[in-house]
Amino acid sequence: MKTLKYLIAASAFALTAGMAHAGEIAVIVKTTNSNFWQNVNKGAQAAIENQSEHTMSFDGPAAESDIADEVNLVENAINRGVAGIVLAPSDPEALGPVVNRAYQSGIPVVIIDSALADQYKDSYQAFLSTDNCAAGEQVAKRMIDEAGTTGKVAVMSYVAGVGSEIGRVGCFQDYIGENSDIEIVGPYYSESQMAKALNQTTDILAANPDLVGIFGANEPTAVGMGRAIVQAGKAGDLVALGFDGNADLQEFVRDGVLEAIAVQGSFAMGEKGVNTVIELLNGQKVEDFINTGVVMVDKENIDSDEAQNVLY
Predict the structure, then answer these.
(1) Rounded to an integer, what distance in angstroms lies between the CA atom of residue 249 and that of residue 307?
(2) In angstroms, how far is CA 289 from the centroid of its own chain?
(3) 198: containing domain
(4) Among 61, 67, 181, 249, which is 20 to 30 Å from 88 by CA?
């Protein structure tokens, strides 16, 4: 039944696409002030360059916590009659109504990175993301392998309640709880602000000198965490794992500050997100969920083709 719904919707979108202004596909992300999301932009641009029927715009709030601004960006895209939308929702509830409005307006929406709340699952046509729960478990397994099954591990998270955070951090903690006697300290929420993550980590390292491990769950959080570890002279004293793969995090891996980083296919989210919208506009069938994957990058494999294809 769900597949039939998508086929019917795809046909409707294909009919209405010709009326959209300039065939624009709006890519709207959680913030433009992040290398991760700029790598999504590069992927979206690559998809657009491979065809000539559509243009692409890229936008997002100044910070991931500016949820109302992201809602307004989607509203503006609907009002100017875009052909389709690729959206990374900063809040699973707040973005739902406006995504539903896009659907009611005949505009296909492809969600990337973080899921919307379940009640809005019929308002978009595909979800492209890392399997964040599987990724969280993968990081937890690495933590246990490196730090052992006892002691304290701090969790440095980003924005509470975001779909990716719920899966990534929740499944990390669940796996740790089910497979070890490790005590979790936190989680602490940086609001995806590097400076806040640095300050939080500095305080936690000082208050918990017996930490055996620490996990920074997204790019700005992991960067702030890494800088705090360096400033505290703790590099190599505890198992530090990060998430995402910008230049700062790569340097931390090479220098031994971070044991490893779990890197998402951010370029693939942008490229496949735009291509999926184009497929919908052409009346093609698309998968409900497209996994864009994670690569665990450490000092041993950081120069491999597999790692270099996802680092940015």
Answers:
(1) 13
(2) 15
(3) 132-263
(4) 249
